[in-house]
Structure formats: C-alpha cells, structure tokens
Amino acid sequence: MSNGLQDTASLPTVWLKMNLIFKATGPGLLMAAAAIGASHLVASTRAGAEFGWQLAWVILAVNLLKYPFFAAGARYTAATGESLLHGYLKQGRGYLVLFTLLNSIAAVASTAGVAMLTAAMLTLFVPLPIELLALIVLLSSLLLLILGHYRLLDKVTKVIMLLLTISTLIAAALAFNAPAILPSGFVSPSPWQWVHVGFLVAMMGWMPAPIEVSCWNSLWLLEKQKQQTVTKAQALFDFNLGYVTTAILAVVFLSLGALVMHGSGEHFSPSGAKFADQLITLYSQVLGEQSRYLIGTVALLCIFSTTVTVIDGYSRTLALGWQLLRHDTNTAQSRLLSGIMLLVCLLGLAIILFFKGALLPLLQFVMTLAFMTTIIFAWLNYRLMTAETLPSADRYGVKMRALSWFGMAYLLGFALVFVYWKMGN
C-alpha cells in the first residue's frame, strides 16, 4: 500500500521534471526547424526517389560525422555563458574575421534558397509568380521577427515541428504498406558514379544543416537563458533532441521518395512550382487525395519556419560579429539586427530574381557552397572545444576528438574530390 502511495506521490515530481525539460527546450528545436528544410524536403526525398535506399547510411553517417561541430554551440555556451563568436575572438581576431566573411556569403545564399522553396510551396495555394511570392515570404518573415522576436519564434516553431513530424511519420508508415511500384527486373541506378558527385556533395552540404548553424544555437541559448535558467544538462538534452530528430526525419523523407517515387520513371522538376506539386503528390498518393491541402499547409509552415529561423540566425551572428570586430557596444542591438535582416533579405531576393524560378539549380548551388565552406567552420569549432581557455571538464575528450578528426578528414576529402570533378566537367 505504501509503495502505491509513494508511486502516486512521485507522479507530480516526474511531471514537474518533464515540464521543466520541455520549457528548457527551444534552441535545439529551432536548429532542427532550420535544418528540416531544403536538406530534408528536397535532398533526402530526391535521394530516395532516384536511388532508393542506397544513400540512407550516407545520411546517417554525415549526421554522425558532423555531430561534434554542431554540439559545440550548446556545449561552449552552457560552459562559458558566451557565444561561439566570443570564443572565436578569444582565439584571435583573424578567426572571427574569417567566420564573418564566410558567414556573410552563406547568409545571402541560404536565405535565397529557403525563401524560393517556401515560395514554391506557396504556389500550391496562390497563383502568382514565384518571384513575387518570394518577396511576400521575405516581408512576412521580417515582420514576424521584428515584431515577435525570439519568444514568438520559439513558441511557433515547437508547434510546427510537432505537426510536421507527425504527418511525415504517418505518411511514411502508410507508404510502407502501399503496393510496390518497382517494375519487375528494375535495377536501381548506383549513386556511386562519377556523374553524381555534384548531387552527393550538395546533399551532404546541408545535411542536416550548414555547420554555422551551431552559432545560431549558441545565440538562441543565450536568449533562452534571459528568460529562465538553463543548466548544462538541459542545454545538451535540448540540442541532442533537435539533432536526433533531424537525422531520423532525414531518413523518413528518403523513405517517402524510395517507396512512392523510386522506379516510377518520374523525376523532380527543376521548376519551383512543379517541384512543390510533385512533393505534395508524394504525400497524397499514400495519405489520400483529400489530404493534399492539409499536407501542403504543414509543409508550407515547415519551410516557412525554416526561412524565418535562417534569417534570424544568420542576422544575429552577423550583427554580433560586426559589434565584436568594431568593439561597438553603443549601437542599439535591435536596430542593427533589423537593418542586417533587411539587407540579407534584399540580397537574397536579388539572387532569386537571377535564377528566375529555377529552384533545384539554386538549391544545388547553395548546398554545394555550404559543403565547400563547412570544413572551415568545423575546424573553428574544433579549435574552440579543445582550447586551453576552456575548462578541462568541458573540453572534448578522446572520443569526441577522434570523431572530429574523422569528420574533418571526410569533409576535406570530399571537397577535394568535388573540385577535381568540377574541373573535369
């Protein structure tokens, strides 16, 4: 009897702990929202559609090999109370300059990529040119960020992530039970052909996201700590939850492409509007035609949240980098942040107009750029997490160091292969 009473009494304690953990989540889920965009909706689904299950292990391996570099954001900030950018500056002014220069290029290119993808999804509901819809998407994102700031972004993202995860898992489960579409004697093309190097590099570039996203996680964690106390354990739990979620969903999106589209003879169109229609058709084929607009809405909200987090994350790191380099503490941070957001969106729109609605070529360009610069961001984070200035208890141990070196070798090796491939073409 006493044991039963003790178990009942312990329930509120367990519930209270779970509630505290949930409230402490945010930065890691925001990172996941930024990741589950082009890399998942486009690259993972396309990998499954063209090559079946052959690249599933590659997606998991890429997530594992990049883990130490992404984890640096949560670990360093939880240990020091500072952002990664402060850490780069402590390593030397040149490191922060290098980061800021590459980050500026990535900010514009990535904003263009996710904004065009959002506009492509919006064409399912609004019959307007994709360039005009991209402008609407960018203006809406700016309005949400300037008026709502981090608190609103945090709340909205959790709901969207939950809806997307549930709908995608349901679609994948139904796809497993759907009749096989592979024709008799069909042989899947091998992704390990020289001609596919460009696609492999693009897919791995944004899988699960560009490594500079670790800096966003660092700054979002600082914002979260202004609202409530976040312990080291909570910060790491939040990061791991978001990171594992992105890895699992990447394989789930691949499964949709493999089960519903692979072997059908259909290929994704480079046109943004056509691609969006093909993507939603994947869901409606297994969930039923009546679910088309529901899934379209969820996917639109997902990629819109990615656009918002991308603009916010890049702009925050650029604003702080500018202030640290100039030793400027007088400029109003909110005004500087808003100005950088506006500039990034304008330059991103210029790139969208240049590509004229060709979604896949734009995303391929952005993802490839991300892969070619990711080795530098990875090296910066590794230096920081093994630096003598960091308390020994918080530095990377032997296992994380070994995984980091293995990851950097893979990133550098594939980058060299891509350069050779590009020169040959």
Automatic annotation (TrEMBL):
UniProt key word Transmembrane: yes
Compartment annotation: Membrane
Membrane topology classification: Multi-pass membrane protein
The keyword Membrane belongs to this UniProt entry's keyword annotation: yes
Transmembrane residue ranges: 20-43, 55-74, 95-122, 128-147, 159-182, 194-220, 241-261, 293-315, 336-355, 361-382, 402-421
Domain of life: Bacteria
Key words of the record: Membrane, Transmembrane, Transmembrane helix
One Pfam family recorded for the sequence: Nramp
Cross-referenced NCBIfam families: Nramp_1
Protein name as it appears in the record: Membrane protein
Organism: Shewanella colwelliana
